[in-house]
Amino acid sequence: MSRDRYLLWCGALGGPLFIAVFLINDRIRPDYDPVSDFVSEAAIGPGGWLQIANFLVTGILMLALSIAAGRVVSRWTGRLLSVFGLCLLLAGLFVSDPSPHTTRTGHGIVHDVVSAIIFLASLPAAAFVAARWRPTPPWTWYSRTVGVAVPTLFLLAGAIAPATGVFQRLAIAVGWTWTAALALRALNQPTL
After folding, report:
1. In a domain, 27, yes or no
2. 110-126 pLDDT, tens per residue?
């Protein structure tokens, strides 16, 4: 298997793995409400290691995808996905503060900043840039829709407190599934 194929497989597995782990975490964490709590809040306290590991492993897998995407898709897609992967690593290293924020910590602020970069900048921008790669109407439409949906759902998560968790999980599902679709589409190139 070529190096790029291996790296693309990392990306194809990274998004679904992240989603599967947070769904498992949603079921096993006591005193945790996936409807109103952010995914990141599962990293707080006892048992938080699972979500921290989820961020770190997925960050590494997305960095692997970014290397191959930079060669196979486009340089800018790779760069934007590398920011995405790096921000996931930082989200794991800097645990979020409990929500609602009654006090702020340095690690919580870093976590919030990298989360905003993920949902409002790097991932949507990667989707828009990749929409031009081997364009077909379905791929272009899908990528552009992801580029709009991810930040919109993230902003709704912040605006509708009773359903914060639902909207954030939808943003993650849409965005992280797109990274897997991008990787699989790249793997289907005959030149790899």
Report:
1. yes
2. 999 999 999 999 999 99
